[in-house]
Amino acid sequence: MKMYDLIVVGMGPSSIFLAYELIQVGKHKNILLIDQGKSVEKRFCPISKGKKCLNCKPKCNITCGFSGAGAFSDGKLNSYHMTLREDGEDIYLGGNGGSYLKEYLSETEINELLTYTDNIYLKFGADKKLYGNKYLDEIKKIKNKAKKENIDLVSFPIRHLGTEKAHILYAKIEEYLKENNINMLFETEVEDIIVENNKAIGVKTKNLIDGTNEEYMGSNIVLAVGRKGARFLSDLCNKHKIETKLGSVDIGVRYELSDEVMKNINKYMYEGKFIARPYPYGDKVRTFCQNPSGYVSSEVYENGLTLVNGHSYKDKKSTNTNLSILVSHHFTYPFDKPIEYGEDVARNVNRLGGNAIMVQRLGDILRGKRTWESDLENNKIKPTLISAVPGDITFALGYRTMTDILNFIKSMDKIVEGFANPENLLYAPEVKFYSNEVVLNKDLETNIKNLYSIGDGGGLTTGLMMASVSGVKLARILSKKIN
Ligand SMILES: Cc1cc2nc3c(=O)[nH]c(=O)nc-3n(C[C@H](O)[C@H](O)[C@H](O)COP(=O)(O)OP(=O)(O)OC[C@H]3O[C@@H](n4cnc5c(N)ncnc54)[C@H](O)[C@@H]3O)c2cc1C
């Protein structure tokens, strides 16, 4: 049986940047990447053409396949280390919403890796323009206003690929990996890893087209399964006793409001990350993944859940901005199942919406009534996700989550006038699953020898840039092990 130097489960940004970097150092002759989805040129989402979700087979095209969740992402590349930090402003390293990767690396190394990785994106055609590094005085004024409301505003330079351009960029990377003879298996699900004497030696797969099973053996196995694979990873950790720390789940809504209300934030920063701990619970509530002139989208997960997300194109524009408002849920003894909790909440919202994303006006929530189709027809903010079903999300989101979100919106209105406009729309469920955080050593290796974990799946990162960085970092580690 053929023995690979390296087998990577998943082909998201973390995985493909790992392969890219191994090519640079000539250690790529014997690598196998496996993904349950399709190659990037075959990935197509009917919703992007104004149709309903068709539950794509074998897997959702939005989140699976070459470049993972990156292919249809908004493509915001966050580079926290750049110019804004020179004046002693926020020192904030990490991907969207922070990243545990910084616990394994020095600040100098992260900065070097971010610059290096940013240059790879530029090489494959990322827009040279940076947002968020120009209007420093204006940003400072908004920060001061936010402080008065006990809200932190974190600002940093952002590069914006745009959904359609992200697709093209990742297609070029796929071509590059093919030209360099990286082996890629698509529409193939990894069902298990093979462990002998506490050492990972291979993977068990199922071909999703013909149902055949195979085993592939490798000297190094990398789990790069993204949030899509959070449940798979969690089960794997339980089965093989891979050490983890209790993780969290972020539950909230996708909030849609007019570009006009958000015009200063959009212009000065492109994306503002507002973080608060509203009364009375003190839970962390934050804005995340802001999409000026964007579109709300939906994605289907294997457990059958339909979750809301958002993105924006480089050229095609709506007149609405969308962003998520997420509440971090950390549980305490005796409860230790954050993924199951998030799934249950999402499933209940899906049930109420007939398996589609639900949408409700802020004003209706405050008045204690559901939103009807006719309410939306007369609403100034028109939903950009046309398949969303109007209803009452408060039947399914917990009291604590709803209170956190509503109190946050109220405070935000004092910073951004119109943020609490009753015609603004709340879509649910928006849930960010992270498997329990996989415990790694400084070589990003788990307690199972030769088994590594990178990217969002094991909770190491939470965004495109840092997921890509984690791949580059692991390549540098593995290049010393591969002959
Ligand atoms: C609509 C949308 C917009 C986004 N916008 C942004 C943004 O603007 N900026 C930003 O920083 N981030 C954004 N993100 C998040 C970003 O895409 C992720 O942080 C990033 O893709 C994580 O990379 P990854 O390599 O860890 O995993 P992923 O990209 O999630 O890839 C994991 C891959 O593993 C595969 N996989 C999982 N389990 C298995 C298995 N058992 N067998 C085989 N294959 C498996 C999946 O099919 C998937 O292709 C967005 C995400 C979405 C969905």
Q: Brief overview, please?
A:
The protein contains eleven helices and 21 strands. With 483 residues, it is of the alpha+beta class.
Account of the 3D structure:
With 483 residues, the chain is α+β, with helices and mostly antiparallel strands. Helix content is 27%, strand content 24%. α1 (13-24) packs across α4 and α1 packs parallel to α11. Flavin-adenine dinucleotide is lined by residues 9-15, 34-37, 62-65, 68-70, 72-76, 95-96, 189-190, 224-229, 232, 289, 297, 299, 309, 311, 455-457, 463-465, 467.
Characteristic key phrases:
seven-stranded mixed β-sheet; 24% strand; single chain; binds flavin-adenine dinucleotide; alpha+beta; 483 residues; 2 domains; globular; eight-stranded mixed β-sheet; FAD/NAD(P)-binding domain; 11 helices
Rounded to the nearest angstrom, the radius of gyration is 22 Å
- Gross morphology is globular
Spans of 5+ residues with little confidence (pLDDT < 50)? 82-98
Number of helix segments? Answer: 11
Name of the CATH architecture of the largest domain: 3-Layer(bba) Sandwich
Quantity of strands, as a count = 21
Average pLDDT over all residues: 90
Q: In angstroms, what separates the terminal alpha carbons?
A: 19 Å
Strand content range: 15-25%
| Helix percentage range | 25-40%
- For the largest beta sheet, what order do the strands appear in spatially? 4-12-13-16-11-19-17-18
Enumerate the distinct ligands.
Answer: flavin-adenine dinucleotide
Total domain units: 2
- Reported by name, the CATH topology of the largest domain is FAD/NAD(P)-binding domain
Based on secondary structure, the structural category is alpha+beta
Report the CATH superfamily of the largest domain: FAD/NAD(P)-binding domain
| Sheet of most strands | 8 strands, mixed
CATH class of the largest domain: Alpha Beta
